[in-house]
Amino acid sequence: MDFILKIFGFISGLGPSVMMPIIFVVLGLILKAGPGKSIRAGLTVGVGFIGINLVVGLMGGELGPAVQTMSERFGLSLSIIDVGWPAAAAIAFASTVGTIIIPVCLLVNIVMLLTNTTQTINIDIWNYWHFAFTGGVTAVLTGSQALGVFAAILNMVITMVMGDVTAPSFEEVSGLPGISLPHGFTVAFVPVALIVNKIIDVIPGLNKVDLDMVKIQKRYGVFGEPILVGSVLGVIIGILAGYDVAGFLGLGISMGAVLVLIPKMAAMLMEGLLPISDAASAFIEGRFKSRAKIYIGLDSAVGIGHPTTLAVSLLLVPISIFLAVILPGNQVLPFTDLAVIPFIFVLIIPIVKNNGFRALVIGIVTMASGLYIATNMAPLITQSAAAVGFALPEGATLISSICDGANALTWGIVRLHGLGIVGIVICTVITVGLAVWNRFRIVKEAKAIRSSGESE
């Protein structure tokens, strides 16, 4: 058992940029895509992930200091430090739950596929850390590692169902066939997006507002292009931070570069994904004719290149700082995790059908609620960090993050487990109910596909 855990620990330690190409090569060979196509697809996906990480790093590296300077300039003092997702992932994988999360989640995925409660083969092993994070924090709260593992499993099941349900609309918007996003952070905002979108539908006037960045770009040419939108927003943020002319112009160019380069890196990911996706479709159709469509589960990084996602994300950066200051009771200043804001919108954009106005409204609602959740979770996250020997930043007494500290799904699972047997039963019933509902949906879809094939 220790040997198996060491193998999985080694694999996760490689990081997504190395781990994902290896997985894709192996998957391509299993699906009989051919050695040449499999190797090329794997390497292309790896290059795409590295490119996206570099650009997201540029965004965080440029925006972070600007936000810090802006905070100091306006005298903002919020006591809980946003340590960012890399620290959260490190804490998650270092926990007891984290050491076994990969084999446990792979087993859960297999069981769900066999019982027809999911359509997704989730190969995004690196992002199992989201489930480990939920489990690790639950274990700290309840004092039970078993409950921590159970909470992680519930988190994964819910995430898999949400990935299935949102896959068709994501396919339509992204142009990525056969891909779903069972990403523990991104799917958490889907329920809020659905509710807020329905509310906007019934408000006269607001329900007519439509800001589609793709249409704006076509109508206004260069003035609607991501490079100009990013540059202008970057300049505004730089001015608010009190930068000199060289400083705010430099920030503007950097943000313009971010909005141009991320879609190009996402395109590389798509180039690598398509051969494997096609091979997977052919494999499933040939061997599982009675099953509904099967998706490959990937990191939501593949979807952050959409122009509406990027434009709305950049707008939400200064809004998030403003919300952090004015919301009574909030103690978290978004800082390190500002770069993950695009991941919030990957599945929101398909729900609002590319409407940037609705996406921004939903983003404000999710960020406002997320700040309160991150504040509430801070003591538990700090305890979790201490339990695995994570060194707190100098002068920090409490830490949190936007990813996954502001995650409503994680918060709900953790807090329900904290209520004891009643909360655990409620959480379990909801999870099992979603899985059973998803099975009915999948079976119905499979019957419709068979009926369609017979009629032809």
Q: Top keywords for this entry?
A:
three-stranded parallel sheet, 456 residues, 17 helices, 6 strands
Shape: globular
The SS-based structural class is: mainly alpha
Our count of helices gives 17
Elements, N to C (H/E): HHHEHHEHHEHHHHEHEHHHEHH
Number of β-strand runs = 6
Poorly predicted runs are none
Strand percentage lies at: under 5%
End-to-end separation in angstroms reads 51 Å
Spatial strand arrangement across the major sheet = 5-1-6
Q: Describe the largest sheet.
A: 3 strands, parallel
The average pLDDT score comes to: 84
Helical residue percent band = over 70%
- Rg: 22 Å
Short description:
By secondary structure, the chain is mainly alpha-helical. Helix content is about 70%, strand content about 5%.
Structure description:
The chain is mainly α and 456 residues long. It has a domain at 82-221 and 288-455. It is globular. It is built from 17 helices and six strands. The model has no long low-confidence stretch (mean pLDDT 84). The longest helix is centred in the middle third of the chain and has 43 residues, at 245-287. The strands form two sheets. The protein has a three-stranded parallel sheet with strand order 5-1-6. Strands 2-4-3 form a three-stranded parallel sheet.
Write the layout of secondary structure elements.
Blueprint: H1 2-13, H2 16-30, H3 35-73, E1 80-82, H4 85-94, H5 96-114, E2 120-122, H6 129-142, H7 145-174, E3 179-180, H8 190-201, H9 213-220, H10 226-240, H11 245-287, E4 295-297, H12 307-326, E5 332-333, H13 341-345, H14 348-351, H15 356-387, E6 399-400, H16 408-418, H17 421-455
Parallel strand pairs: 1-5, 1-6, 2-4, 3-4
Helix pairs in contact: 1-5, 2-3, 3-10, 3-11, 4-6, 5-6, 5-7, 6-7, 6-15, 6-16, 7-16, 7-17, 8-15, 10-11, 10-12, 12-15, 16-17
